[in-house]
UniProtKB/TrEMBL annotation, chain A:
Belongs to the xanthine dehydrogenase family. This is CO/xanthine dehydrogenase Mo-binding subunit/aerobic-type carbon monoxide dehydrogenase small subunit (CoxS/CutS family). PROSITE patterns: 2FE2S_FER_1 (PS00197), 2FE2S_FER_2 (PS51085). Residues 1-75 form the 2Fe-2S ferredoxin-type domain.
UniProtKB/TrEMBL annotation, chain B:
Residues 1-219 form the FAD-binding PCMH-type domain. It comes from the Bacteria. Keywords: FAD, Flavoprotein, Oxidoreductase. PANTHER family: OXIDOREDUCTASE, XANTHINE DEHYDROGENASE SUBUNIT C-RELATED. Its EC number is 1.17.1.4. SMART domains: CO_deh_flav_C. It holds the Pfam family FAD_binding_5. One of its GO terms (molecular function) is FAD binding. The keyword GTP-binding does not apply. This is Xanthine dehydrogenase YagS FAD-binding subunit. InterPro entries: CO_DH_flav_C, CO_DH_flav_C_dom_sf, Diverse_Substr_Oxidored, FAD-bd_PCMH, FAD-bd_PCMH-like_sf, FAD-bd_PCMH_sub1, FAD-bd_PCMH_sub2, Mopterin_DH_FAD-bd. SUPFAM superfamilies: CO dehydrogenase flavoprotein C-terminal domain-like (SSF55447), FAD-binding/transporter-associated domain-like (SSF56176). The keyword Oxidoreductase applies.
Amino acid sequence: MISIVLNGRAVTAPATPGQCLRTFLRAQGCNGVKRGCDAGDCGACTVLVDGAAVQSCVMPAFRAEGHAVTTIEGLAEGGELCPLQQQFIDSGAFQCGYCTPGMILTIAGFDAVQAADPARALKSNICRCTGYAPIADALDGIARCDDRVGIGASTPPPAACGVVSGTVRYAMDAPPDGLLHARLRRSPHASARILHIDRAAALAIDGVRLILTHEDVPHFPYSTGRHENFRDDPEDTLIFDPLIRFAGQRVAAVIADTAAIAEAACAALDITYEVLPALLDPTAVQDEGAPQLHAHAPRNVAARVQGQVGPHATIDEVLAGAAHVVDRTYTTQRLHHASLETHAGIAWLERDAAGEDSLVIRSSTQVPFLTRDTLARMLQMPRERIRVFCDRVGGGFGGKQELIVEDIIALATLRLGRPVALEYTREEAFTGASTRHPMQIRVRMGADAQGRLLGLAMDVLAETGAYGNHAPGVLHHGCNESMIVYNCPSKFVDGVSVYANTPPSGAFRGYGLSQTIFAVESAMDELAIASGIDPWRLREINMIRPGDPMISHHDTPHDVTFGSYGLDQCLVLARDALDRAQTPELGDGDWHLGDGMAIALIDTAPPRGHYAHAAVTLREDGGVDLDVGTAEFGNGSVTTHVQLVATTLGIEPTRIRVRHGDTEAVAHDTGAYGSAGIVIAGLACHRAALALKAEMEAFAADHQLGTDPGAIAARAASRGRTLSGSGYSDGSPRSVAFNVQAFRVAVNRDSGEWRIVASIQAADAGVVLNPMQCRGQIEGGVAQAIGGALMEEVRIDGAGRIANPSFRSYHVPRMADLPRTEVLFADTYDTTGPLGAKSMSESPFNPVAPALANAIARAAGVRPRSLPMRADRIWAAIREQSGEMSR
Amino acid sequence: MRSFGYARAGSLAEAIAARAAGATPIAGGTNLIDLMKLDVARPDRLLDLNGLDLRGIEIGPEGARIGALVSNADLAAHQQIAARYPLLASALLAGATGQLRNAATTGGNLMQRTRCYYFNEADTPCNKRSPGAGCVAIGGVTRIHAILGASEHCIAVHPSDMCVALAALDAQVIAEGPAGERAIPASAFHRLPGDTPERDNTLGDDEIITAVTLPAEGFADHYSYLKLRDRLSYAFALVSVAAALRIEDGRIAEARLALGGVAHKPWRDQEAEAALIGREPTRAAFADAAAIVLAPARAQGSGPEGNAFKIDLARRAIIRAFDQAARRTPQSQTHKQVA
């Protein structure tokens, strides 16, 4: 037993040996104490001990004995938010909100020195969503929200108070009673066959309830990647597979009374492997005679895309007749999503009046409906007997468009009849989830003397790793919009995505485009240099404009239109802002300045069907209930849904109660991916609100009422009527959104160091429904992309294992690592989106790495063609070019 | 996490007896708890030192004595330490984060273990974790590994910033055991891996660190702690340099140089220091010193994931840090833009 003063209240409670303060505080109901890394690297679990900020995950609980501990739950006094909490709301200083309690408490513990230098003082805390700029604004007391309501107002999210006070629920918060815990045993080998699993020692451990291996679960081939059409991804995965294809693949699950017992039992499983040679080289896997990872994939090809359009038979033919030619290969690395909440879920059973059990799952998923549908097939249960929902999801970025915890907890709960939780550790988030696809991209382009493109060819080698989740989608998407953005008579694409004994790649913000746009936009800059044409001008000469055909490498009909066009405005906005940017004193050293830019086009929604339903019901009290299927993982879609409904119906946003991310809410929703939150789910919400508005107007006319929703609601109630409207969107037709990124950097040619002097992004998001939020999406996207361009890299060693599965060794940018990004909006009205809006969530990421590479190339005098552009690589390239040899 | 015993030490004598009987001391726990979670550290019994009276900082004309339980945050913020030994304060602020420095202690910082990727992964072969198992860092991703003093058994580096400054400042580690108190020079506290990489340092298995002492000379006029890493914040050093000079009549009267991030211990080179005596504080002189330090340097691995670049990085960092020290423009830990 230990005694502490917790949020002003004396608490005596049992602490188990080895318990850290984080789990002790959560056991006392302080759900605002978050788990991000459990290693002292991310700050999500920060609490105050006697007023000083500490990371509770690396503080033994017994060290708090006799001390005063303050958690986020104790910060608001008498139910009133403290000024810092309010400032976080007013500045839009969170998106998913998972880091927010720790961030606020860290700041609350600042001394005067730290308060004067927050960028340094906050190096302890990771925010993956915002890019830190609004957090800095919160510290400076700069508000971004406004008091207006309606379209174009910077309304804070409906969950804002809950986020800053730690009361919103994420997957692992407020668990049901009697909870059991699952842990996974993973393979240390990249390629192996399981010969035998001896479970005797594990079963002998007290508290072990169930062990699941390939001998215990259905043989059900599926893909962890989730799409509307489940056959989009190769069904090459088993729940447990006796054939191991990557280091980190799950081998067994143990369900036990505590996570510690489950972990100990996992370690006690005696597994005999036949270790097989591992194929780690994405080129060599295609060799004739190379071992085949999957029976359905000769030469280890998981997906292929090939096509060409135009008058030329080959790209060589184009290049032969071109005045200016570029032929270069660019390489992009593996990236980790680093959403601060890891994959997690809890399953339990609920018995209905008829005595029948339903399976209920709350998980950190971007796709509750698609998860439910696959579980129904896997478990051979009717869909109606499975409910999947998420409350708030702590970041996703594509990483949670996967089914990787729900199957285990579902199986275990059905076998045991008790609630079961599975929460990934941070290391598992690296080794047992997906990454961005590494790609090698060769770009060949030829232009005439005036800089007009004659031909553009892209050869892509993508590595899907051990499994094919998202392999076809990422490859196709990557080879699509990156090619469409330029008018060019002849286009060629030859892309392949290959299996290897490496961790599976998956969906990642940009969905293939961040890699290919890095290549194409770098090559365009090389063409600008080769032809002596200004890079902005070169874009203007070649970029697609309204009326131009949208052609990538085929001319099959599609449903993408110019709902609005703002690329021209974005170019002018970004260029003018860069011209205005102040250049600071650079100090001593061989510093050189360089400007760089890049453009990006993205379809506003995924192809071939993405569906959303919404329902709006007038309550008796004159407020409105909004049911919408899509999940909220920090992207802010729910905020805009409320704005759309509030504006349409003319009621206060606070009168709207939202239920989202729940298979019980509506008939179907494809999910929160492909930037669909506004343009598809939002459209469904808007249509539902219009339907209710028509209902209300008709009812009011029948009953001689005015327009006051309260009066209409009261009368409807007294007549026993419920007024409601429903809306639906099938995600077609689609439009295009644009982003232009510009940087000015300084590079020290003596050391390879870089400094970002100016960062600007101009975006065409159509009508900006919520400027605070849209700006936040762009600032956050740019920040995440700067990390991916300059410092982040999942490193695979010679044995196929991830060498840096922690935030200590995988470098996510902190506040001090990032510049301010100036965000500018084009003024357009999209004809396909709700009230003129377009999507703006993945796309800000896409032009960042090439714009940075283009700036660095000009400042350094050497061009980085491989990511990340670490200082030592730039330095080595400078040395190589100048002929110096390193010792 | 495995189960283990836990006891609070009521007195130093009790702590020494418990340590001699095999208990593992814990103070801030910021490293040990992490390693226990990773199943890298597997103590049978934890010995909580936090009840001991080792939190004092005494400063006098003859030097300073810092209690082993003084937190890194309190030490860095101590006004007299910052004034007399700014190299130490600067190194402390270059390391970890505010939250960690609030919890981490002086003694614990000395005892922190390597951040070698492979050491921190319980199921890979590692001679430091299980002697004789082999080393997969050799031939692996070696970006953060040693260029000096490595052995065929271990190429890990010591991660501390504080210890680099202590080595440069000729600090002493005060340890107490059954035989009484002894002082270990900071530069001899950590050791090279040789064929016993499981031992990080020379502290006896029955000894407890009680304090760190500093001599009177703090090099407050001419010092710099330059830490180079992959990004501006929260990363361990690729190379760090603690440089200090005493300059009389335009010539170097005394020089101190210790490197971090490059060896199994903070790398002090007194031959290089001696070579600077009597010379003018010029980049040429510093380059000569750097050449002496780095003459035995050897790269691990090749290509972008190897660490060949660190040799030249260290050479330049030494020159730059000494130059900063000489010009009285020590590297700021606040504005990390490197001049």
